[in-house]
Design goal:
This protein is of the alpha/beta class. The strands form two sheets. Strands 3-2-1-4-5-6 form a six-stranded parallel β-sheet, sandwiched between helices. Strands 7-8-10-9 form a four-stranded antiparallel β-sheet.
């Protein structure tokens, strides 16, 4: 997929690296010249200096062919305007915005941003990662009463050695990716086998998050 990201700060940088590692084509728009130079130095000619809410900059980034547009700046108004332009002027199918103030959630919803990610929830998820009871599970709440759940399959898990076609997922959940211990994405089909230390990423309804986690962490 071709993915355009506005904002090359910490969130944008790490998101870019992860998406490139997953073999996606990524282009970044960033106002700060030093950040642009750093991105180009690390990843190649895939960043431009400019305002992500300017149509001419979005055109230069090739937004007309983008599959996903992601706004990650620290300003909710800038993220919102950028997503509006991407959706309604350039026809991007899916827009995602970082939401820094949780009180703005309804506004993002009314104005048609497809998904919002709360920076507050990101911080809470980071804290949860340091708690022993949640050492193999990461949960990130997103817009639409859903969670993105990352689960590392522990030793002794019943699902280890089982193929995807034989695993029953809870209603309302979707398997997004399976990442092997070597960092490679596994192909998602009925023959995909889950191994210990694989990381499983899923999209769940909030009330099914615990059930999704249980599928991949329950032990004998």
């Amino acid at each position: 997929m071709y993915i355009v990201i506005v904002g090359g700060g910490k969130v944008g940088y790490h998101l870019t690296r992860a998406l490139l590692n997953a073999k996606h084509e990524v282009f970044v728009i960033e106002l700060d010249a030093e950040r642009v130079d750093d991105l180009v130095g690390r990843f190649g000619n895939m960043a431009i200096r400019g305002d992500g809410s300017e149509p001419s900059i979005l055109t230069a980034a090739g937004l007309t062919r983008a599959d996903i547009f992601i706004a990650t700046t620290s300003f909710d108004d800038a993220n919102l305007v950028a997503c509006q332009l991407a959706k309604h002027r350039f026809g991007v199918d899916r827009t995602i915005a970082l939401m820094n103030n949780p009180e703005n959630e309804r506004l993002f919803d009314i104005l048609g941003v497809d998904f919002t990610v709360s920076s507050t929830e990101i911080l809470l998820a980071a804290i949860e990662e340091d708690l022993p009871a949640h050492s193999n599970v990461r949960i990130l709440a997103i817009h639409g009463n859903r969670d993105v759940v990352g689960v590392e399959i522990p030793p002794g898990a019943l699902v280890a050695g089982t193929s995807l076609g034989l695993v029953g997922l809870p209603e309302g959940t979707k398997l997004v990716a399976v990442i092997g211990r070597n960092g490679e994405l596994k192909q998602l089909d009925d023959d995909t086998v889950f191994d210990v230390h694989d990381e499983v990423l899923g999209l769940t309804a909030v009330d099914q998050t615990e059930a999704f986690m249980e599928v991949f962490t329950s032990e004998e």
